[in-house]
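I have been asked to look over a protein record a colleague put together. Alongside the sequence sits a line of tokens, each denoting a local backbone shape. Please read both lines and tell me whether the tokens look consistent with the sequence. I do not need a full report, just your reasoning and any doubts. I have pasted the whole thing underneath without changing anything.
>
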Amino acid sequence: MTAFKESKTAENLMKAFAGESQARGRYTYYAEKAVEEGFQQIAEIFQETAYNEEMHARLYFNHLVENLGKDMVVINGADYPVALAATAENLQASAEGEHAEWTEIYPGFAKEAEEEGFSAIAKTFTRIADVEEKHEIRYNKLLENVKNASVFKKDAKIFWKCRRCGFIAESPVAPPKCPVCSHPQARSKILEMSERFQQRTDSKSSSCTPKSTVK
């Protein structure tokens, strides 16, 4: 086994830690831009993904701490993207970054880690690559919605939920404003199947509960 401090894996872990940490920051900024443009649900997805990247960074950092302690790692030849534009461009940049991670960067890092005898680290790279693939798919779908002006307009009836008061509307188009609390369309989100199932379950439970009688 290669000594960790002199290994390529140590450098790759630091590159991955830096990359994931920066991705967390970029996605947080992209979320703020999405809110400015009226894409609240996209903003929430950016924020959720930022948290995912923070956890990826923590996993890489933990490997470094376990194997290096307080030693320094020098990074050679690393470059990191700097992009902040409209939401469509931010989604495009995000999808491209995720694509590079799961198709090239992390598989390469995993291969080198395995060759140097660090199987546990190789598995971390491989498993995180699987997550990044899902991130790319989601970003590309959101980008398609923005480009086609279908963020708040679909081809068939779906359920839209107001984030503020919880009102649910069934329509191909999100209400221009909530008929209950008057919050704007930007505050609408597509009701996920899990939420719909939970609401049906709650409704059935409440219907089975004996009603109190006023005496």
User: Anything to note?
Assistant: The longest strand covers residues 153-162.
